[in-house]
Amino acid sequence: MADQPVTLRDSVGGKAGAEGSGLPVPGLLLIFSGGEPCCTPIPIPGSVLELGRGDGRTLFPTDPRMSRRHASISFDGERFRVVEHGSQNGTYVDGVRVSGSLQSAMARVLRTGDSLFLFCGDLRPFQKEGVRLRDDRVMGPLLQEVLLQAARAAQYGRTLHITGDSGSGKEGIARTFHGAGPRPTAPFVPINCATIAPGVAERLLFGARRGAFSGAVADTEGLIQSADGGTLFLDEVAELDLSVQAKLLRVIETREVLAMGALRPRPVNLQLCTASHRNLRHEVSSSRFREDLYFRISSPCVIAPPLRQRLEEIPWLVQLALKSIPEPLSVSSLFVEQCLLRVWPGNVRELLAEVRAAAQTALGRGVLRVEPSHLAAHAGQPIERIEESAPPCAVLFHPPINRREQPDRIMVEEALRKSEGNISATARALGLHRTQLKRLIVRYGIHASALGRDQTLDDEDGDS
Q1: Tell me, which fold does domain 4-128 have in CATH?
Q2: Residues of the chain with CATH 3.40.50.300
Q3: pLDDT exceeds 50 at position 463
Q4: What number of other Cβ atoms are within 10 A of residue 346's Cβ?
Q5: What is the C-alpha to C-alpha distance for residues 79 and 63, in angstroms, rounded to an integer?
């Protein structure tokens, strides 16, 4: 199915002249209105944009909850300024109601009525590309540019490395690389190296001949052989053992693969796409990744942008997630706003899963409209790493004992004799700290001769 570009209407008063002049076009991007996602750039004409309810003849949304003169938006080159005109339902910036006016360089989301906008310092990418839909994929301008880079890499080379956060769409980029290559109808073989059990990677990737190892009763083809003529995608390639990395390098260099137990290599003709959320240079410096393989696969490289840099895609992704639910559901603008304001460390994968979970919560409560209360509190939030601090050594090795559990004089003297007066050894034997033991010796009036050697209580033991 070909790309479906989202329709973009002309800007206020016609197309902005700055689009062709090379100058940034600041303004608002309407991304949700009337319960549906959209992508409508609204440039700031001159110095101020007077935002209000539209009548179908302008770019402004026909939102009944917006006032005809709702708010004014301006941009000084660094900061957006929002002036509220006393609208009945209020103006909200990043979820906070504007009282009078607000000026910010970090503002992201504007809500007026049931419509959502993004503050945008340059609308030109949206005026040119918009948001494209391809099957179950949503692609804003930034992701479209990355996909274009991947397609170019396929036309001029045989390898591509992809970096980016987990869930940001690296496999989709790899499929674009494959589709733009010389054999788009050939096999595309994806494998997540992090899921391969230790000791199995070599057999799985390179195949094996009968008798190569115990239990090998027949020849088996590896994934590299199955990708012959097409593209092999190794996600999380940094998880491969160093020995497997060496064999992979040989495949790249010689275009031959030697199966386990085989005497002769078999020629293969494939494109190789690798991906990792780790920094491979750091892995090389830590001796966890082969330097020679790094230099062979690390360039060209593209970066899968995280979802927090592609906010224009979120309303479309919410709609996509809800379409997977059998029951017909609508979504409130407040729910979409909440999704826009969260960071989504798990990116697209996390967003889709949490929206589906919110839809199930709504249905469980007997409603057909997904609201912010249906979204889990932890959804899209950063994961806090809890570092457990070790207890002090005195507590770790010599836990304090209460007075009723303290050894009596006879127990202390016996322990001292067995350790030949070694204070530290005696304390360990009794489950005490050295200081506790010394206090007991003084309290019980144990004579120094009982220590078993020339030693006073102030001496430091060599093994303490």
Answers
A1: Tumour Suppressor Smad4 (2.60.200)
A2: 141-304
A3: no
A4: 20
A5: 26
The pLDDT of residue 118 is above 70: yes
Question: Which pLDDT does position 87 carry in this prediction?
Answer: 93
**Taking a C-beta distance cutoff of 8 angstroms, is the pair 371, 124 a contact?**
no
The pLDDT mean for the chain works out to 86
Collapsed DSSP state (helix, strand, coil) of residue 327: coil
| ∠ CA 144-2-157, rounded to 5° | 55
pLDDT digits (tens, 9 = 90+) for 32-46: 999 999 999 999 998
DSSP run (H or E) holding 360: helix 347-364
CATH 1.10.12 fits 393-451, yes or no: no
Largest CA distance in the chain: 105
Q: Write the pLDDT tens digit of every residue in 203-219.
A: 888 887 765 565 555 67
pLDDT at 401: 44
The pLDDT of residue 11 is 39
The amino acid at 96: V
In contact, 252 and 244? CB cutoff 8 Å: no
DSSP letter, residue 383 = P
Q: Mapped to the 3 state alphabet, what secondary structure does 196-226 carry?
A: CCCCCHHHHHHCECCCCCCCCCCCECCHHHH
Greater model confidence, 191 or 387? 191
Nearest-5° Cα angle at 381, 139 to 6: 20
**Which residues in 261-289 are b (16+ Cβ under 10 Å) and which e?**
eeeeebebebbbbbbbbeebeebbeeeeb
